[in-house]
Amino acid sequence: LRRLGQLCQARTMLDEALAILRPLANGRNYALALRYLGELSLDQKDYAGALDAFRRLDERALALDQADFRSTALRGQAHALSLLGRAAQARDAALEAEALARGPDNLPNRVAALRVLAMIHASHALPDPEGMQEPTAVLHYLHAALAAGSGIEGYLVPGELLDAMAGEYARLGEYRRAWEIATEASATRERTYSREANSRAIAMRVQNQTDRARNEGQHLRRLAESEARRAEVLQRTSSTLERLSAIGREVTAQLEPSAVFDALNRHIHGLLPATTFAIYLTDPGGTMLVRAFGVELGQPMAENSFSLSNPVAYTVRCLHEREEIYIANWADTPNRYVVPGTVENMTALFGPLVAGERVIGVMTVQAREADAYGDIERLVFRTLCAYGAIALDNARAYTQLRDAQSQLVAQEKLAALGALMAGVAHELNTPIGNSLLIASTLQDRTAEVAKMVAGGTLRRSDLDRYIGDATEASELALRGLASAASLVNSFKQVAVDRTTEQRRGFDLRQVCEEIVATMMNRVRAAGHAISIEVPAGLALDSYPGPFGQVITNFINNALLHAFEGRRGGSMKIAARPLGDGWLQVQFSDDGCGIPPENLGRIYDPFFTTKLGQGGSGLGLSVSYNIVTALLGGRVSADSDANGTTFTLELPVAAPASAQAEPEAIF
């Protein structure tokens, strides 16, 4: 109700909830209600009331020893104190809230605390924080919030945060930066629009269900005034709601369909009498309803499916009508049908799995007894259907994204293979072509000498000249073929390393020379040069193939970005030992450098300034994952207008736990 703008109705309901929960003041639900009261008071501009609610929440958090509630309470107090004009107290409370939320499991609270600090500094003249590197304290805390949010898996930057950052840059006169951030905020809001719309729809459905449950609860409370079981009923209801809330968090946190199925199956059997539990999902073609998961009497059920044109299947009817179907006594139904090989149940519940405006499947739970499910059981089932629909839709989207990213990485590798083959062809063409020319010339001279011998006109000077030419031709041919053989060995070793990605001992200089040999065609064609300053004898026990891919990506990145519009650029690969089983490898170029605003994003998947011009945005992301995960090292980048340097710090022996190349994106 608060998010729908109905503040007075929300306050009435919240006051009633606090009165009901007062006997359970030591529970988390009471603390949650105090938090909602504080937030609602802020919306109603009752800043003194908000301060009181958040201070009461602080007391509950201390009693419960809950750091997340404590951080929320302090953050709320800071917000209220700021609006009351008590700037110094507001800042101190917000700083304490941010300090409490610095743990890795409490990052959302830290982001919120940093945003409140930015709001306080925007509203009041306060001293700048220590170590501030941004132009203003507001930008200091907003950038810190953005950095903290990047550590949260699946985090999407709120548009409000970006809007605040854009407004501050505009206030400073940096209008271009402000426009760029405002554009990003607009794009973020577009991405989140669908998600928010789904959340609103779910919120409205939950509101309707809550209204119904509330009315039923009022009726039950009136009946229970004369019954001694009232306290027991209230306690059981509270316990069920807490359990459903925990179940919802667990189910919707899963990103694999099998994990979602297992969680729903476990909780269905824990909350409802269930002989049979099954989940049906629509197939990609939209013509069939396929059983994706099914358990009966604790045993997996055989595969089964229904055509969406089936006239009698309750699952199909539930899907089409988007309505829950409850069969209290199957013996009384006219269209009774039992799937062969399954138990003959008497009670059945069918619920649609609705994700936004789409119905993705149907969930059913069945029991042998008639009238097995009352209103509470049906409400629990309905709630689990909502959780399951959200989780399965998220899992499907996650799978599609992962498949798409895998395809992009595969295309990146194929492009690298194509470049390798082009380099092989070009590098071998010169020595083999020269040898072929020499051999054909020697063949012609041999034919001339044979003709002179047959005609009796061969002179000693002709024979001496032929022997001299043959000797020189043999030397040239041997030299060319030896060069070709050396190139073939280099290409063969690089190809084996790239294909098998096997771990082996290797000499770093030799591998670097082999990598450069495969890239010389592109480097020379672009009019640039590359040098190697790696001392001989630096031995590694690691993965030469993935290491080669990293260096190749650096070279490709330099050719695409660093030397745009000019020739004569230079690149260098250098290495030196660091001691304690580590060494340093540096790749540098004298190109145009990376803009400061892009330097922090170069390892982000799909970030590129050359989209559609040869850049996929995956090269440096793949390189980062290889270095940090597979090779067990570290990578950093420094850049200015005179060029860019990538620095790798690698262990001489790769970690023993690394067995294969990590996924390029995740």
Question: How is the secondary structure organized here?
Answer:
Elements lengths: L6 H15 L6 H16 L3 H18 L2 H17 L3 H14 L6 H17 L13 H13 L9 H13 L3 H50 L5 H23 L4 H15 L4 E7 L5 E9 L2 E2 L4 E3 L6 H8 L3 E3 L19 E9 L2 E10 L7 H81 L4 H41 L3 E4 H18 L3 E5 L5 E4 L1 H19 L7 E10 L2 E8 L6 H4 L19 H12 L3 E7 L2 E9 L15
Parallel strand pairs: 9-11
Antiparallel strand pairs: 1-2, 1-7, 2-3, 2-4, 5-6, 6-7, 8-10, 11-12, 12-14, 13-14
Shape estimate: flat
Radius of gyration over alpha carbons?
35 Å
Structural class: alpha+beta
Largest sheet composition: 7 strands, antiparallel
Mean pLDDT: 81
Uncertain residue segments: 493-500, 658-666
Percent of residues in beta strands? 5-15%
Tell me the span between the first and last alpha carbons. 38 Å
Number of helices: 18
Number of strands: 14
Q: What is the percent of helical residues?
A: 55-70%
Main attributes?
18 helices, alpha+beta
Task: Explain what this protein looks like in three dimensions.
It is built from 18 helices and 14 strands. The protein has helices at 7-21, 28-43, 47-64, 67-83, 87-100, 107-123, 137-149, 159-171, 175-224, 230-252, 257-271, 314-321, 375-455, 460-500, 508-525, 544-562, 596-599, 619-630, and strands spanning 276-282, 288-296, 299-300, 305-307, 325-327, 347-355, 358-367, 504-507, 529-533, 539-542, 570-579, 582-589, 634-640, 643-651. Strand 6 and strand 7 (358-367) form a beta hairpin. Helix 4 runs parallel beside helix 6 (107-123). The longest helix is centred in the middle third of the chain and has 81 residues, at 375-455. Residues 493-500 and 658-666 have low confidence and may be disordered.
